Structure formats: C-alpha cells, structure tokens
Amino acid sequence: MKLSEKVPHKVLSIIGGMHSCGLAYMENGEVKYILEEERLSRQKPYLDLHNNWFRYPLLSVSTLVDRYKVDLKSIDYFTSFLDYESVYAMVKGVSGVEIPREKFIKTEHHDTHCALAYYASGFDEDTLVVAIDGTGELHSAKYYLGTNGEMKYIDGIGIDRKSIGMYYSALTELLGFKRLKDEGKVVGLSGHGDYWHEYYKVFKEVLTLEDGLYTQKSKFHEETDLAGGGVYEELYSKFFHMMGSKIDWKRDEHRKKIAFSGQLAFEDTVVEIMNTLHNKFPHVRKVALSGGIFANVKLNKRINDLDWVNEVFVTPPMGDEGLPLGSLMLVAKRFDPNFKPIRLDNVYFGIEYSVEEVDTAAKSVMGEYIKIPYNVDYVGELLKAKKILGLFNGGFEHGPRALGNRTITCDPTFPETYDIINNKLQRNDFMPFAPAVLEEDANRLFKVDKSAYTAEFMTMLYDTRDEFKDMLPTVTHPVDKTARIQIVTEKSNPFFYEILKKYKELTGIGCLVNTSFNVHNEPIVNRPEEAFKHLKDGIVDFLITPYGIYSK
Hints:
This protein is of the alpha/beta class.
C-alpha cells in the first residue's frame, strides 16, 4: 500500500502494551509489513486488571529483522503513541539497537485511531471522524472533522469521565465472559434477547451523557484505578442493588435480556453522540470510525442506518492493533501536507510462506498426507459436497477478521453446518458465521444500499434480503436475519474470488461461509504448521493453498 513519495526512506511504527502489541514497517512511502504479536506468540490478548503486565513485540521485531532482513540501525524514523523513553527501552531490550531521540516521532493514541479511520476511508467529502475505546493517554474518545485531507479537532471524552469502552468491558464480565476477548459473544447473545426496561434503566444511568457528547465525571485516579473511572463499580453496584435478587443466573433467558438491554443502552449512547455531532455539522454525511468499540457490528449497523448518514467506514484493524498503521499515516501527513484519504486494496500485510515452507510443514506435522495440484474445479466440487475447507493463502490479514487468506469455508445453505463447525472449533458462540459474497452478488443477497467499501473488511452488519433469509441459514442470524458480510472483489483477493465464482457456477449462489481459521481461544493461524495441525485434527477436511490441495 503506497502512502506518499515524500515520506522518509524507512519508518518503523511499534507498540507494546497491556494487550495489543506489534509493528508496521514502511519503506519509500509503501507499507510493507504489519505484524501482530499474537499471531506469532499464539497468545490471544486478554487484559486481567489484577495482573498489570506489559507485552513486548519480541517476535514481531525478530521476524522483521530475521525474515525480512530489515536493519533497525538503518531506520530513518521510529514512531509510536508511546513516549520516547518507553519505545527506546522496548527496542533496545528486544534488539539491542538504541534509538536517537531525533529519530523518534510521538503520536497520540486517539489521534492515531482517527488518522487511520480518516486516511483509509477514501472519502473526498467532509467526514466526521470518531474514535472511542477503553482509554488512551488523556481520553477515551475523540471527535474530528476531516476536510480535504486535514483533521480538525472537535471535542472528546477525557479520562476524568466514564469510559464507554470500559462500560462494555464491565458488561462483558458481568455476563461471565472475559474483557478484550469475548465482547463479540455479548453482541451475539444480545441478538437472542429482548428488552427489559429495568435492566436498560440501570445501564443507561451509567452511560448518561451531558450535552450529547460527554459521559459523566468519574472517580478516575490514574495510578490506582485500573478499572476505568469507577465504571465497573457503578455498573455492578447499581445492577445488583436494583436487580440482583430478581435474577436467576442459571436461566439463559435472563442473560439474554441483560445482553440485549446492555447492548441497546450502549448503542443508544453512541448514536446520541453521532447525532449531536451531525447537528453541529449538518452538511457532513460521511462517517469514519475507529477504536475498540467499533468491533461491535450491531452498533455499526445502527450508525449506518441513520437517515443522515450516506456512508460509514470502519477501520478494519479498529482496535489498538491498528495503531502502528495509524502512526505511519500521521508520519505520511507530517512529511507530505498534501496527503489525503486513500482506499485500501486489502489488508493482507502478514507473513507469506513459500511452497517449500508449506510442504516442509506438511511433512513435519502430517507425516503421511495426500497432495494434488490446485484445481478450482475440484475445490468447487468439494464445497458442493458439503466439505469443510481451510484456506491458506498469501499474507495473513491485519486485524481481527479472517478475509479469505486464513479462512474456514463451506456451503452456506446446509442448516446443520453451524453446529458441525462449532463442535469442530470447540466454540459456543451465539452469532452465525459470516458470509463471503461476490461483489456482483452482494446487493442481490443482502441490503448493501450504502457502505459497501467497509463491507470488504467484514466490519458491518447488513439485512439479508427476504428471498434469501431461509436459503442461507449458516450465515444469517436466526432472529434478526442480519449478516456480517465480506464483499470479495477480484482485485482484493483473486484466489478467494475465483473459488466463489466457481461455487456460484455450480450452485447459482455467489456466497460461502467465512469463519476464522482457528479453534476457540486460539489466534487465527499464521504458519502452515498451524494450518496442517487443524487438518490433522479433523477441524477441516481439506487444506486449500495455491500450491496444492492437501488431505489426510
């Protein structure tokens, strides 16, 4: 991905932290590699408030140096939202290289989120740019107006006020899940519940807004309050004081109503902020979003469905894993004042493996196996026969969504598939699998009347059209009939596009299941060894690569 010809020769953006860590590397204005530590370490991030420890991108740095032969001493600039001292200690600790202060460019957490949202949106028109998450240096939310390549600060929520992101973390733990890991389960569970006013009232009191833009003042103490300004304490105390004796936690119906009401209060709060911003800038009808809360696809749909919104773009790596790329975009803007929003062709910035590496992995993991040359006709027949396929192609995807390069796929019309794959993946989620759909079929199967670009990165829910609601049971929500679609174009992923085209030729349906290539509690696969282990363990029936089709 080319950003600008005017950017210094080599720029490395690097982060460590309590959960996400990794790096992004740019050379001659082109983003070359983005590495997320969890894909290399095989440890999913999960922030335990009682074990406050820092994660370092050890494997990301060593991969950059050893695999890609990048000499850290040759880097022109290092950049991060972390301060110079932290980055200096981190880089020296993992590589021995000392960073001169004059080679360091400091960015700010939410500015970086906003930069990535705006500059990857491709929007030429004025744009409302919004970043909301748990917390950054001094804010938990910032709002900008993007105009002709410039970002003008509007307002934000300081860390002296309650955090909307921390609220959702508290809701996640209230329901017995893990924060920064299981929020998607709350979204899924909420789709099976219904409204209960008493629950909603408690949650909305925690999220009461002032002037439509700010949460209420909190009890934040930076050195001691790791739970986010008293949000946890207030939510729990209010909830159990008012509702505790009325809840039978063994009844799923109660948990579903809690999830529904908590999700609704969350959505209503963010929508109120969006409407307030629109009232201040009524001519603006484009929206760019970033920050961890916008992994919530139900929320994103609510925003997209607002009458005044013409198009929404949600950053594909919306969480802190996207901050290294956001910092690179701020550096591009610093050195090239004319840098303006661009469109992403794809986000396949991870490690790509050779045929030799794939075959070596097959031998080491499988021992004995069958390999035949890649043939899309055969892949189509396997899909038509209801086989479950693992796709392993190119570099892994940047961000939380599998987008065809590290994907499990199969026929979307077979009702039993949902339970079959869930059992194989040892998961018990409440959401259907996502559909990958051909660009030319997207609006025929789903109501993609606006915001189609962001759908290329699976960051939005869309309504399934009436005539296909029952035809696509594996990828359509059983209650609200929505789908978290990925639009696949020939330009973005020709390998996956060809498979979808073949399946459509055989069945008339240009749509397949797309779920991430991993078992429960494991990061999405990176190396071919991990993919072959899934094949050996029977998670997938066949492993499909451009180099060949593998089976037991």
